[in-house]
Specification:
Elements lengths: L1 H15 L3 H6 L3 H11 L3 H39 L2 H30 L10 E8 L11 H10 L3 E14 L6 E8 L3 H5 L5 E2 L14 E5 H8 L9 E4 L2 E9 L10 E4 L15 E6 L5 H18 L1 H4 L2 E7 H5 L2 H35 L1 H9 L4 H38 L14 H27 L3 H7 L7 H36 L10 E6 L8 H16 L6 E5 L10 E7 L9 E8 L3 H5 L3 E4 L14 E5 H7 L9 E4 L4 E8 L14 E5 L8 E6 L7 H11 L6 E5 H8 L1 H35 L1 H9 L4 H34 L11 H26 L4 H7 L1
Parallel strand pairs: 3-8, 5-7, 14-19, 16-18
Antiparallel strand pairs: 1-9, 1-10, 2-3, 2-9, 4-7, 5-8, 6-7, 11-20, 11-21, 12-20, 13-14, 13-17, 15-18, 16-19, 17-18
Length: 863
């Protein structure tokens, strides 16, 4: 038994280290095994003997491994130097695939995978209200409900709240409008953040009448105050209010786009539970899951609905992790789609390199057969071919990292801003380098295993006898054809996805907005309460609109409480009242406060009735409203709405004076929502959006700034843009996804065509004698052409069929990214298959044409 075990181990070592094992360990190792076992009579001695053998082997084996590795790499390098064109093409192909993959992975990692900057980010959750009867799945909450949550919930260490606002700063330079967050005092602790200078708000400062204080973001501190460390304790003026700076927070740590923080300081007694305008976030206690916290919040919501049925009936709570909130599902899906697309390109590149290596192995078949005949084991042949593939992969990986490094500034410039969250951290960090190294190693193994295995299977005698005229081994041809079929399947799947995204983008750009975006310029402006009371604000806006209307190039001007296509909305319930009202007609509708010229400036048609005029420009005038046509139909399906009354969420009753056409207010991809418009002459909002219309293609921002400066030099416009820019920004993410997937699909098509061309050209070369015989026996060039193209067509049809099946299976994944087109659109899928089939035949035509020009005499003489 012992001798059999020794013999088995000895044979294993000989198989792993043929030749080298004898040189390093000597032929007496087996004898040492047997002598040691003979002297080890007791079990304890035998255990010590085996431990010693294992230790000796562990000491010597790494050296053998390193010697083998160095020898194989040197041999591979010499072999590749003799084929510089092959090496250059393979390295360039791999560098393209690995570089693109590393660049896209850097985006995915920075946006979707990198841990959030919070302490224990998995415990931070976003909290919304919801109403299953309404069409919006997530609502902001009211101040009283937020306070009730804080008092009753036990699953959280804390629940914080904030409200978006803006303020004009007049300290430290020219007046500038800053995005301001009114936050509860516990916001930074709930997020797990600390100021980089100064301190956080105190609870006393977060009460009505508390000390006026502020925390600056690092960008404002550096750009406006030169990173002066003495800023702590200094006074700054925001909207006419002098506030003491008590701290500075880092921009990158915060999850919201803002420039200054001030205390929320809301009086709960004066707030309505039906006024949903507060955003909330919570930190779970250790060991509390999101599901358990959701169950508790459901109980609290039900309790509040019983206590306050008028405002909380049908309202519940929904939550999501901070990562799901910051990087929405659609954004992550788009990024993963890009990563999958570039991996498809990489796989096709690996297939091409594998096909090249198979062709190279076929040309080296006599050399490899001679090595086997001289005693090289199959394992040694496999090891040598793998060394070549790993060396090529290492060179391609290095070139790929250089390509990714070159692409980084381009990606950062294209993706920063509002296009992708957290895009400012895109770069070649350690995670990207490790990923690139793993991809490089995987690629080396992927395109090396098949050629290595095929190269080791040889009929030595037959190969040496045939010499350089022997046909390629059958498994080589089958392997290369299988690689081409796989390339075709991957390419058609990627092309189908690109086609669907392109169709979706086309529909998105041609969608009917309900208004004319050409020539519109918008900007926001806020009036400090300390300098403008209600009457003063009305007077300012009247003078502003008059000045704009009198300016050259202005065809219309208006103000509104929000700009279209910014993704922001305000919503409240509306109910038809009166004897003609239908029961249960509560509808959740978006609302805007607009001036009388808004509909003319936007070219948003009034279908019935009228717009606002001077009769509606007084606060004591009867309250009126203009409804969108879809909202009017839902409130009065078969009645005339003009002159009827509605009750809105705050209890006020308004008379309907006009019906406007539906318009896309939120985003391009969402259908027009029910909307109602209130007169700015009766109520104002802060800040307001100024809308100015000029000739198509004009930007009236300079006119806006001049008129505002003439009225009040201390005011600053902000968030200014043309409507074309807002449309482009709204479509930027789907456009980027469609464009990049299209680029990758083009690369995949090119690589697949090159792969098919290589296979057909190689087959033509290997069948030169056969083609010569056919032509000598009377075959015409057309039949030879059909023969070669038929082989190419069969490969393409199989690959396209498999790819279309995969595209159909993957279609639902694209569903959330598409607009106006089905994920399994038959026309798009058919077009992808046809394009690839035509490209396949085109790529095969040149080698097929060359086959028709074979001289039978030359082909037969070569035999």
């Amino acid at each position: 038994m012992a001798r059999r075990r020794v013999g088995w181990l000895y044979r294993l070592l000989l198989r792993l280290y043929p030749g080298e094992f004898r040189e390093r360990f000597g032929r007496d190792m087996a004898g040492a095994f047997e002598d040691g076992l003979a002297d080890s009579r007791r079990p304890g001695d035998r255990v010590r003997f085996w431990r010693g053998i294992a230790g000796d082997f562990a000491f010597h084996a790494p050296g053998v491994h390193m010697d083998l590795l160095r020898h194989d790499l040197r041999y591979a390098a010499r072999s590749l130097r003799r084929s510089p064109v092959f090496a250059l093409v393979a390295v360039a192909t791999l560098a393209l695939g690995i570089g693109a993959t590393a660049a896209i992975f850097s985006v995915v990692h920075a946006v979707a995978l990198r841990p959030l900057a919070f302490r224990d980010p998995s415990r931070v959750v976003r909290i919304w209200e919801k109403n299953d009867r309404l069409e919006i799945p997530r609502f902001a909450t009211s101040v009283p409900n937020y306070v009730s949550w804080r008092e009753q919930a036990t699953s959280f260490e804390g629940i914080a709240a904030w409200h978006f606002n803006s303020a004009t700063i007049t300290t430290g330079g020219e007046p500038e409008r800053l995005t301001m967050l009114e936050v509860s005092a516990n916001s930074l602790p709930v997020l797990g953040l600390s100021p980089i200078a100064g301190r956080n708000f105190s609870e006393a400062e977060d009460r009505p009448g508390g000390a006026p204080v502020a925390i600056l973001f690092e960008s404002v501190w550096r750009n406006r105050f030169g990173a002066d460390p003495a800023i702590i304790g200094r006074q700054i003026v925001l909207d006419g209010v002098s506030r003491t700076v008590i701290g500075v927070v880092r921009d990158a740590d915060f999850v919201l786009t803002a420039q200054v923080l001030v205390p929320l300081a809301r009086d709960v007694a004066r707030e309505s539970r039906g006024d949903h305008r507060l955003s909330t976030i919570g930190r779970l206690k250790p060991g509390v899951s999101l599901e358990k916290a959701q169950q508790e919040m459901d109980v609290i919501a039900a309790r509040l609905a019983r206590q306050f049925p008028d405002s909380n009936r049908d309202w519940g709570v929904t939550m999501a992790t901070a990562r799901d909130w910051i990087v929405p599902t659609d954004t992550r899906t788009g990024l993963y789609l890009l990563l999958a697309s570039v991996i498809v390109v990489l796989l096709i590149a690996c297939s091409n390199v594998a096909s090249l290596m198979l062709a190279r192995a076929a040309l080296r078949r006599r050399e490899l057969a001679l090595r086997v005949a001289l005693g090289a084991s199959r394992f040694r042949i496999i090891r040598g071919v793998l060394a070549e593939s790993l060396l090529l992969a290492a060179a391609g990986g290095g070139g790929g990292l250089l390509l990714a490094w070159w692409l980084m500034p381009i990606l950062q410039a294209q993706l920063t801003g509002d296009l992708l969250p957290r895009a400012e951290s895109i770069g070649l960090d350690g995670a990207v380098l490790w990923f690139s190294a793993a991809v490089t190693l995987t690629c080396g193994l992927l395109f090396g295993v098949i050629p290595a295995t095929a190269s080791s299977r040889r009929d030595i005698a037959r190969t040496i006898e045939q010499g350089s005229r022997g046909n390629v081994a059958p498994q080589h041809g089958l392997a290369r054809q299988a690689l081409v079929v796989g390339q075709m399947a991957l390419a058609v799947m990627l092309l189908a996805g690109a086609g669907l995204l392109a169709q979706s983008l086309r529909y998105l750009h041609h969608v009917d907005l309900g208004f004319d975006p050409q020539g519109l310029t918008t900007a926001m402006i806020g009036l400090p309460e300390q300098r403008y009371d209600t009457a003063g604000a009305h007077q300012f806006y009247d003078r502003l609109l008059a000045g704009l209307s009198a300016s050259a190039g202005v065809e219309g001007a208006a103000i509104a409480s929000g700009a279209p296509l910014t993704g922001s909305f305000t919503s409240m319930q509306v109910r038809a009242i009166g004897a003609s009202a239908l029961p249960d007609t509560d509808v959740q509708a978006d609302w805007r406060i607009v001036s009388g010229g808004y509909f003319d400036a936007m070219r948003l048609p009034i279908l019935r009735g009228r717009s606002f005029d001077s009769r509606d420009a007084r606060e004591d005038a009867p309250k009126v409203v203009v409804l969108s046509a879809d909202l009017a139909r839902r409130l009065w399906p078969d009645r005339d709405p003009i002159g009827r009354e509605v009750r809105i969420g705050n209890g006020n009753i308004h008379r309907v004076v006009g019906i406007a056409a539906p318009a896309r207010i939120l985003t391009l991809g969402l259908d027009p929502r029910p909307a109602m418009y209130f007169s700015s002459g009766q109520v104002l909002w802060d800040p307001m959006v100024v809308v100015v219309r000029g000739a198509a293609g004009t930007n009236l921002a300079p006119v806006l700034r001049r008129v505002v400066a003439d009225l009040d030099p201390q005011l600053a416009l902000f968030s200014g843009s043309t409507m074309e820019e807002l449309i482009a920004l709204d479509a930027a993410q789907p456009r980027l996804t469609a464009w990049m997937v299209g680029v990758f699909a083009g690369l995949a098509l090119l690589l697949a065509a090159i792969g098919l061309y290589g296979v057909i050209a190689f087959l033509v070369t290997q069948r030169t004698q056969e083609i010569g015989v056919r032509m000598a026996l009377g075959a015409r060039p057309g039949s030879v052409l059909r023969l070669v193209l038929g082989r190419s067509a069969r490969l393409a049809v199989v690959g396209i069929g498999l790819g279309l099946i995969a595209a159909l299976a993957a279609g639902p994944i694209l569903g959330s990214l598409l607009f106006g087109v089905r994920p399994r659109d038959p026309l798009t899928l058919a077009a992808a298959g046809i394009v690839l089939f035509v490209l396949a035949l085109t790529a095969s035509y040149l080698p097929a044409r060359r086959a028709t020009r074979v001289d039978p005499v030359v082909a037969l003489r070569a035999e």
